[in-house]
């Protein structure tokens, strides 16, 4: 493979990575906790776009439980976003481990 072909492949991969990043920014995942007590929705570029809390999850005498449910739901959403992002990026990079992307 000559240098021109290699540069063309690099540019193609860059364009595919930019497209994948745009797709991830518009892809949403949801993490839940306590059954359906708390749900956190975020994009795969880690922007929280929604939080739903069931009325029965709100107990003024037990705020700590609600806080714990929020932490669990956020971490679940982050895990799904990471998994989705890793899968999408590995399809672009052909499984190459590129620091900072996965």
Features:
Ybab, Chain: A; 53% helix; 3 strands; single chain; rod-shaped; three-stranded antiparallel β-sheet; 2 helices; alpha+beta; 102 residues
Topology:
Layout: H1 3-25, E1 28-33, E2 38-43, E3 48-53, H2 63-93
Helix pairs in contact: 1-2
Characterise the protein shown here.
With 102 residues, the protein is α+β, with helices and mostly antiparallel strands. It has one domain (3-92): Nucleoid-associated protein YbaB-like domain (Ybab, Chain: A), CATH 3.30.1310.10. It has two helices and three strands. It has a three-stranded antiparallel beta sheet. The radius of gyration is 19 Å and the shape is rod-shaped.
Give the N-terminus to C-terminus distance in angstroms.
Answer: 27 Å
- Strand order, biggest sheet? 1-2-3
CATH class: Alpha Beta
Structural class by secondary-structure content: alpha+beta
Q: Globular, elongated, flat, extended or rod-shaped: what is the shape?
A: rod-shaped
Please tell me how large the radius of gyration is.
19 Å
Number of helices: 2
Per the CATH scheme, the topology name is Ybab, Chain: A
Give helix % range: 40-55%
Number of domains: 1
pLDDT < 50 runs, ≥5 residues: none
In the CATH hierarchy, the architecture is 2-Layer Sandwich
Average predicted local confidence, pLDDT: 90
Give the H and E element order.
HEEEH
Strand content: 15-25%
| CATH homologous superfamily assignment | Nucleoid-associated protein YbaB-like domain
Number of strands: 3
Reported for the largest beta sheet, the result is: 3 strands, antiparallel
